[in-house]
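Worked problem 6 (solution included).
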Amino acid sequence: MALYKHNRYASASQSDAFDVTHNPGATTPYSGIYRCDNCGHEIVSEEGKPLPPQVHTKHPTDKPIKWRLIVFAQHNTTA
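Solution. The predicted structure is:
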């Protein structure tokens, strides 16, 4: 489970982006933390790059990997 310390750096969202699962090797739609729905392994992936493949060492189940966005990295251009 993703963790954070300071509330000021994270906000809740009802975006539909958190409801979609993605197959291994699919192009990452948003930079952030993704979690496999079937084994719980979490990874960081950048927008436009492929999500990890089906064969990763942390997948201890015969069920397929299904990546779900759990933390979106919002790029703020104003400081």
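Discussion: The mean pLDDT is 87.
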